[in-house]
């Protein structure tokens, strides 16, 4: 491997980072400055200069997709396979370690991963078992309470009860009962993966030493989005001898709702010895205009570490602003632009704040036959039919899986009623056994009415027979058999034709996914990682995979599809064309995020969205939107107002442009902001309260001494004071 070739494509600061002498390194830099590139080149450089073996490297990425890309890029940089290199998300790495060391982690070998939905249903059960009212203490609240505790590394027993805080104490009770329940049934939720792994090392010094010696080089992308337990985990692993190389951007910290904190960047700089701080300032991704818009917007945030971001690229195209009259119109506009685009479709991304927004785009694209792909919203493995099928697999695998039992005991309908289930839950609670065991007992002891008993027996027999039947089959065959023998197909066919077809196609896709999974598993080459973690059965592995894979890998990677995703899912990615949709007050910024600190995070999210674009950026907002069953008037997002007006050009659907932009946000003397003082010929001095409409119809509300007035911007002749 030619080492200089590795450095050729880097600028001075990047090269400095890649070739930094041994020690900890923090690369703090804005979007598109090559942080991820530097991280990958650092690994390649360590390997090429023989300072490290792949075996000694641990790379932590934010998504599974990023991990896959990293491996592919390394392979092409080094012309070599990077099989031995551990590059994965925090969750996947923790999962692998717990699988390997399940005994030390006090877990059953076949522990199952609870995704967010499953966690809620377990919590519901726990709350009921405690005889609490799940309308007052909701599973959602409990989930948030517990996950937050775990994200901060706190178990129930480590959290202090407060006499006066009844709610908190109840939550602690739920947390304690939930921990016991998960332990008893071998269930591990996402936050638990990390906390458990942290404890595994903390409580087993010799194991920790082994990994500290092994992972001499630890590299972390998107460090601004680490939470406390991840930070502590890294600190523990790094010990005194490993070298950490972390890259991040405080302006792109967008996961504080999951207890991540950009403050970890500063902590890292202070707490790790002799950190080499490197800043990258040149952006290679976007045009000058896109970058300027991003810089201006993010400058509205206070408390930034602050950075200087520039580009050599030309100004490029203006930013386009489309004002739709409805959300349907917005979707139509985007679809029309997509159809008019002559480049690759995968170079176009549609970004939105909430997952629900994807539906209209999907419908529009389906109608026009535009291939699209959704990332990270409704995850493939979270779809109803997929969850049903997985529940069958889970129950076949592990009869005491209550979540799976609850899900399929009456799917398809077999006449097992809620009253029967209540009886079973009662027995399970009282005797501390699983629902499956409770069902068997209830039948034996004739606690149920004859009819209930007989339908339940049929169900138990079905599972047992199915188990015998599919036991010797490979995984994908198992799924096929279950599909036909359980009546699931007929069950879905009762729905509308399209719905049924979609569900059956998804089940076929699951068969494919299982087959691919098996193939990948059997093709794994021998590694010099002597403790191959894949020691459990395929089914257990597959079930873990379905929980951990964030739907990123579904669909054909190579098909040329438009990409749809939430802004959160777009982190780290880049596209030639980006549509930032639904830029409206209460949607983006989101209505739950209007206080100062949350607003700053929304603004960072907008910054992330803008900086995904290489050449074209379309901002879209609608003047009205259907929400909560009503059509509501929508005000353009304050973020549009915070961007430099002169760089934005309004566009119409039929490609006719209105230029220059004369909008609700600008007067002849420049931008107007809420709270700003202005003067009017007739009414005198006043303060801007509000705006609405745009173009010739823009109106502004002003508080004058004589009272509040709405004025047409086009005629008001306001003077800024
Ligand atoms: P983000 O903050 O969005 O994650 P980043 O800082 O990780 O961005 P990269 O994704 O690594 O940035 O790089 C952005 C783009 O710039 C990529 O297309 C990358 O290939 C390109 N790039 C980075 N450095 C250089 C360089 N020195 N010369 C040419 N292109 C570069
Ligand atoms: Mg990156």
TrEMBL record:
This is DNA 3'-5' helicase. ATP binds at residues 29-36. It comes from the Bacteria. It catalyses: ATP + H2O = ADP + phosphate + H(+); Couples ATP hydrolysis with the unwinding of duplex DNA by translocating in the 3'-5' direction. GO terms for molecular function: 3'-5' DNA helicase activity; ATP binding; ATP hydrolysis activity; DNA binding. GO terms for cellular component: cytosol; DNA helicase complex. It comes from Thioploca ingrica. Belongs to the helicase family. UvrD subfamily. GO terms for biological process: recombinational repair. Residues 288-572 form the UvrD-like helicase C-terminal domain. Residues 490-520 form a coiled coil. It holds the Pfam family UvrD_C. Residues 8-287 form the UvrD-like helicase ATP-binding domain. It is an enzyme of class 5 (isomerase). Keywords: ATP-binding, Coiled coil, DNA-binding, Helicase, Hydrolase, Isomerase, Nucleotide-binding.
